[in-house]
Design a protein that fits this description.
The complex is a heterodimer of chains A (481) and B (161). Chain A is an alpha+beta fold. Chain A is built from 17 helices and 20 strands. The relative contact order of chain B is 0.13. Chain B is an alpha+beta fold. Chain B folds into two domains: 62 residues; 77 residues, no CATH class. The chains are: A alpha+beta (481), B alpha+beta (161).
């Protein structure tokens, strides 16, 4: 791959984009199509027209994708990456190479079969993030060459640095045992209970169902079964993905960059400059808290713009000592942070919560009153339901009080969040863009406040809540910024 | 910390009165279209309570917001405190500023006040109801400070290399 040469995406992009568009259309129309199947049988010759319209539509879609592919060019000229699209609207995205922080490669199942790769670019700024919203799909060899070319242009000394770092073995490769442990501790206990309940319910319902019960006859029933399988599959996937998502996980520190790759059905390879890491988050599910295991995620701009990668993974669940050892090896900038410890919320917040509790019982009272108007015979059931919800809310609040906290450490701001599970965030002060503190009359009286910190990160990780903390701590935080 | 000038109080009252008129008009419309023709007693009672709250809010909130508003700008931070029932404090380190903007809405122009919006990589923070001359002065001095910070950072980077 060379500079000043214009090239196109790999031709398979036509196939991928067409399939994606068809998938969306099928998803929208399939429900209506099946439930209207009986009426369509009466329509006779209209069905043929409908099929012709659909085929015509697909042909237009395919031709349009070929047109877009033929008219889209990518090139590296001088110090810029240029993506031109000369279709009905002429569009030219020019991205300064110095603004590109990461070049990542991704492969889904189809791309693995075709031997292609998706190139994803991360920029240093949120305002240019939309400019990188361009599909670049190349043959794996070309994608790697393209990545090397951009990395060389953004940092000409990178190769020499990389070679110099070759001698250092700062690498972690997960074994099957790590992945199984990670999968086990990733399981959300409540998702598991809901899943078991839904499976039992679905089996019970379908075993008693007859064709006559279902609107749309056989097709309707098939559709209902397919939808149920899809819903259950989604829930099941949320439980088992922890076991398969991070198969073949490798992470390596090379000078000032972290390289990591993982995936079975979707292979990803990221390269992250360490100075672009804004924060590190240690996460524990309920099971992990019981088993004293932690997993680690990192937050930096760009990396989790893709909603599928909303949680950016860094290290799988492991014991505290092992996690600390790996952090020391791979990210010494955050070494020792787990040992620091946080300050819990002041006890006075229970008094600050009184108005909320009063409001809660007022709402419950109104709900109870309205329900009694319509179903007075269910008085005991309603009281029991309100009682159970209130007890669960109280347990959750106590668990949150025992978990949540903050600390203004020398190097990091620590924010602990959660109730049954726990998330511990460590942010470097120079990465905090600004801070907001809030107080109502009661909080002011007790000299406590809560607030938010704002980071340069993807939307999901841009704002982090600060739980109630003492007023004096705000001054310490201000001085640390 | 600095306070706002009396011009800001006039601006706050005018904005609150206009907002109050719109809110009262919305309640009146609901009453005329639905609550009065259908004689919904509870709806009418709620409307009266809401109207009283709107009037009270229009009279009280600008007074408290004006007297609670404080701001300070030094070599390192912009610090703003504002609010009515809930008091909010925003602290922005000057080093994180990317750009700033002065803005004058129609009501601001009547009372010769302006907003200064400072933008960081994490979002915007607004200094409101500043006298026009003060807003221009702040924008200019912050602009100079941002340039100075960029020069200092470049020098630091050059030294590190």
């Amino acid at each position: 791959m060379q500079k000043n040469v214009r090239f196109r995406n790999h031709i398979s992009v036509i196939f991928e984009n067409t399939i994606r568009s068809i998938g969306v259309i099928v998803f929208i129309f399939i429900g209506n199509f099946i439930t209207s199947m009986d009426e369509m049988e009466d329509m006779g010759e209209h069905t043929t027209y409908l099929v012709l319209v659909l085929v015509g539509f697909l042909a237009v879609l395919l031709i349009w994708q070929i047109f877009v592919w033929a008219k889209t060019y990518i090139s590296i000229q001088e110090n810029t990456l240029i993506v031109e699209r000369n279709t009905l609207n002429k569009k030219r995205n020019t991205i300064g190479l110095k603004n590109i922080s990461n070049v990542n490669l991704e492969q889904n199942l189809l791309e693995m079969i075709l031997g292609t790769c998706k190139v994803k670019l991360d920029t240093n700024s949120l305002s240019t993030a939309d400019q990188t919203d361009v599909n670049i799909i190349l043959k794996k060899k070309d994608a790697e060459a393209f990545r090397q070319l951009i990395l060389h242009e953004t940092n000409p000394e990178a190769e020499a640095e990389e070679q110099a770092a070759q001698g250092e073995q700062r690498k972690f490769v997960s074994g099957m045992d790590d992945i199984v442990i990670h999968g086990l501790f990733s399981i959300n206990f409540f998702s598991l209970i809901v899943l078991v309940g839904v499976v039992a319910g679905a089996i019970g319902t379908f075993s008693e169902l007859t064709l006559e019960d279902v609107e749309g006859g056989l097709f309707g029933m098939l559709f209902s079964i397919l939808v149920s399988i899809w819903v259950l599959g989604g829930m099941l996937w949320s439980v088992v993905k922890g076991f398969v998502k991070y198969i073949d996980f490798k992470i390596e520190r090379k000078k000032d960059k972290i390289s990591l790759s993982y995936g079975l059905f979707k292979k990803v390879a990221y390269s992250i400059p360490v100075d672009k890491i804004n924060a590190v988050r240690f996460t524990q599910t309920m099971l992990a808290r019981i088993g004293k295991r932690y997993m680690v995620e990192i937050i930096n701009v760009g990396i989790d713009d893709d909603e599928n990668e909303a949680q950016f993974f860094f290290l799988p669940y492991a014991k505290k000592s092992k996690i600390e050892e790996q952090i020391r090896m791979l990210l010494p900038e955050f070494d020792g942070c787990l040992e620091l410890g946080e300050e819990k919320q002041p006890k006075s917040i229970w008094l600050i919560w009184i108005p909320k509790v009063v409001l809660y019982f007022a709402v419950m009272g109104v709900v109870f009153g309205i329900m009694m108007e319509f179903i007075p015979e269910a008085k005991l059931v309603l009281l029991a339901a309100i009682g159970i919800i209130s007890v669960l809310a109280l347990i959750s609040k106590i668990a949150a009080f025992l978990t949540i906290g903050t600390a203004v450490h020398k190097q990091f701001l620590e924010i602990v969040d959660g109730s049954i599970g726990r998330r511990i965030l460590f942010v470097k002060y120079d990465k905090i863009q600004y801070v907001t503190a809030k107080q109502n009359v009661l909080a002011k009286n007790f000299r406590v406040q809560k607030g938010e910190i704002y980071l340069l990160a993807a939307i999901k990780n841009q704002v982090h809540s600060l739980p109630y903390f003492r007023e004096e701590e705000m001054e310490r935080l201000k001085d640390s910024l | 910390m600095e306070k706002l000038s009396k011009r800001a109080l006039g601006c706050m009252y005018t904005a609150a009165i206009i907002a109050g008129i719109f809110e009262a008009a919305a309640i009146a419309a609901v009453n005329v279209i639905w609550l009065i023709p259908h004689d919904v007693q509870i709806g009418k009672a709620v409307s009266v309570v809401l109207l009283i709250l709107i009037v009270l809010n229009t009279i009280i909130s600008p007074y408290f917001r004006f007297h609670r508003y404080r701001y300070s700008i030094n070599e390192e931070f912009i610090d703003i405190r504002e609010g009515y029932i809930f008091v909010e404090r925003n602290i922005v380190p000057l080093e994180r500023l990317h750009k700033m903007q002065t803005l004058r809405g129609p009501i601001d122009r009547i009372f010769k006040v302006a907003k200064v919006i400072v933008t960081t990589a994490g979002g915007d923070v607004t200094l409101r109801f500043l006298d026009e001359e003060k807003a221009d002065f702040i924008a200019e001095s912050l602009g100079r400070r941002i340039n100075q910070i960029v020069v200092e950072q470049r020098e630091e980077n050059a030294e590190e290399r």
